[in-house]
Structure formats: structure tokens, C-alpha cells
Structure prediction request, 387 residues.
Amino acid sequence: MILDRQKNLTILGSTGSIGRQALEIIDVFEEIYHVVGLSAHSNWKLLADQANHFRPDYLLVTDETVITLKEFKRVLNYEPKEIFMGPDSTVDFAILEESDTVLNSLVGFAGFQPTYHALRAGKKVALANKESLVVGGELIASMIRDQPEMLIPIDSEHSAMLQCLVGEPKDRIEKIIITASGGPFRTWSAKRIANVQVEDALDHPNWSMGAKITVDSSTLINKGLEIIEAYWLFGIPLEQIEPVIHPQSIIHSIIEFVDGSSKAQLGPPDMKVPILYALSYPDRFPLTTDRIDWSKHMELTFEPVDYQRFPCLKLAIDAAKKGGHAPAVLNAANEVAVERFLKREIDYIDIAKIVGHSLDKIHLNTDLTPGSLHEVDLETRSLARRI
Ligand code: NDP
Ligand code: MG
Prediction:
């Protein structure tokens, strides 16, 4: 049966798309998952609603400009043990003694420190924040080398890979085929892509997600970030991780083995499946979601990636090959460029220009440490804001 043991969970970013879906699941499995901590950046109203329902002992609001501690206490119907305010509390919040598992659904570089420190403190991490591995994969991979089960991916492609690899020796992998929907501009000409508006980029054909990853999926830089994520998670050489466009988003990734046999993981595009798998791994728990109707006519199609129309993907793969701090530069430049595009300060095609220019200009050849990552992140952001 499924009740092997209780898990005490801290959720970072419970107000986001992944965080909210995680709480919906936890509500169903309330006997197994006990919520110890919840965090929001700016959406304190939703955090208060979640807190009043789940009553965790610890809360964190990272954007202290949105509400004071006194005001926030007033909207709660119970008294938590501690309410943390401000970004400097994020690490303390990620290593709470009472919690054994941290679900990191923060967006962007802000997610790196909590992943790193939670692992260091011996917590299990269920990781949606792919940026943690993009920027600091080298540091994180060395911590989980002997115990990979401490870091379980939530990203659907990586969850698919993990599911395909159950029972398989890792040294028998020939290739990882990582699928991409192709985003809303898959069939658009380069000329049409040049005039993309914010509304177009936020209109993803298959998945409903937060704004940043939705734009990342449209430029395909998301697939580049995911290649880096797979590289650090599974230790497979970059040349053996191949992106392919699969517009239906039914096959979430494929592993090809040395004997020519391949395994794929399939399912409707619903993040609740990989979120629950990350929490139940290596077990599976029952979930009420859409099922594929195999009796109906259905086409699963594949296309090669067009690096010309989607230069961000090429930039990400090049940064991955370069290694060191280059992926952190790529990530910071992309975060700033996407933010500026969403504010309508720059055109869509400027995203790739800002990322490319930042990678040309910023080089840091020291050893990679949490401090050096912070430094290169700040420097890149400052440049990317000025371009
Ligand atoms: P959202 O934008 O929906 O949510 C982000 C969360 O992080 C919110 O709780 C937000 O708080 C918080 N947050 C934002 N900025 C900061 C900051 N500077 N410091 C601390 N907290 C912050 O994102 P998603 O849920 O879509 O994505 C989360 C992560 O999961 C990303 O790394 C994404 O790539 C990954 N992912 C998401 C998928 C999806 O389907 N959404 C699929 C696969 C991966 P608030 O809202 O209160 O301001
Ligand atoms: Mg994904």
C-alpha cells in the first residue's frame, strides 16, 4: 500500500503555477504529506489563504515591500511558529529542521541558493526550479553523485527520463531524446516571429504555466535550459542529448539504449503527474487526471529543431558546451530580457540579442562557487538591463 511514511514538506513558491498544483495534490494526500512551510514572493493574499487552509508552522514572504509583518499576521486565522520576511531568509527557510523534503517551485536564479543549501542540509529536493541546475549544476551534481534520489526533477521531460530509467543501468544509455512542443511559433516564418507581441508569446498551445517559462518555451531557450538540466541530473554527455519537436506534447521524452531499444514516457500534458511522481518516487500514487483515449485516432509527429528561427536554443547549447559560468550568464541575461519583453521595453527578437551579447561580453574564469555565481549573475543583469 501507499502509506509508507509521512513526508514533511516545505514548498518554496507555493503561490506560483507549480506551487499551487502541488498544494492541490497535497490536499488529496493530506495523510501522507504534511506542510511545514509555504513561501510567496509578492502574492501575500494567496499565501495567507493557503496558510489558513494548511496551517504550516513557517511562512516566508520574500518581497518585503508588499506587506509588513504586522499586517500579514492580521490576515492569518492561526499563529505560525515563525514568519520570515525578505529574501535573506530564504536559505533559513529552505533548511527548516522540521522539514525533510523541499519542493522548490521558485522561478529563476532565486531558486539556486535554496536548492543548494537544502541538499547540503540533507533534505530531499523535489525540483521544479530548473534554473538551479542551469546555473549551479556543477556544484549540485557533486553533492548528489552518490545519492541521486535526493534530487528528483519535476520538469516533465526529466520526470519522463527518470521514469524510463527505472531499473536500467545508466551506462547503457546511448541517447536521450528530449521532446519540445515547439511553442506557439513553431510554424511561423522568421519575418512573422520578428513582430511577435507579448500576448502571442504568452499563448502556449499545450501547457498552462507561469509567464517566464511560457516565454522561454516560445523562444525554445527552455529546451536549452532543459538540456543542461538533463546533463547534470543524469550525467550524460551533451552530444548524447538531442532535442526534437513533438507538437502534441504526449511523449515527454525518450531514452535510447545501447541495444537499439527505446523507452518513452507518455501522458496528457498535465504537470500534476510529474509533481506527484517527484513526491511519491519510487512509488506511484493514484491521481485523477485526463487519460489518453487509445481507441481514438491520434497522431504523434516529430520534426527537427530549426536553430535559425530559434537562436536562443543554439545559444543555450553553446553556453552548456562552454561550461563554467557561461550558463549562469545565459540564464541571467535571459531572465532580464524576458522581463523587459514582458514590460514591452524591447522587441521579441531582442531577447536573443541580449542573451548573445551578454555571453560575448561576460567571462569569469575562476572556480564556480555560490559566491562566484552570485557575482556573475549581478554583473550580467546589470549589463542586460543596459543593452
Ligand atoms: P510562476 O511564475 O507561476 O511562480 C513562481 C513562484 O516563485 C511564485 O510563487 C512567485 O511568488 C515566486 N517568486 C517569483 N520571483 C521570486 C523571487 N525573486 N524570489 C522568491 N520567490 C519568487 O512560475 P512557475 O510555477 O510556472 O515555474 C516555477 C519553476 O518551475 C520555474 O523554474 C519553471 O521553469 C519550472 N517549471 C514550471 C512548469 C509549469 O508548468 N509551470 C513546468 C516545468 C518547469 P509570487 O507569485 O508570490 O510573487
Ligand atoms: Mg519541461
Remarks:
- The chain has three domains: 7-153, 156-270+302-314, 324-387.
- Residues 12 and 83 are 14 Å apart (CA to CA).
- The domain at 324-387 is CATH 1.10.1740.10 (Rna Polymerase Sigma Factor; Chain: A).
- Residues 13, 15-19, 40-43, 62, 105-107, 110, 128-131, 155, 207, 209-210, 212-213, 271 surround NDP (ligand 1) (CB under 6 Å).
